[in-house]
Design brief:
29 residues; 86% helix; mainly alpha; rod-shaped; 1 helix
């Protein structure tokens, strides 16, 4: 079981990485 704060932090980090990846992909086009 994970602590709620850990889940929130992990979700936020995952979303941030996805956003960075999308921005990089758009710039690469």
């Amino acid at each position: 079981a994970y602590d709620q704060s850990e889940i929130t932090a992990l979700a936020a980090a995952t979303l941030a990485l996805e956003m960075l990846y999308i921005q990089a992909a758009k710039k690469g086009e």
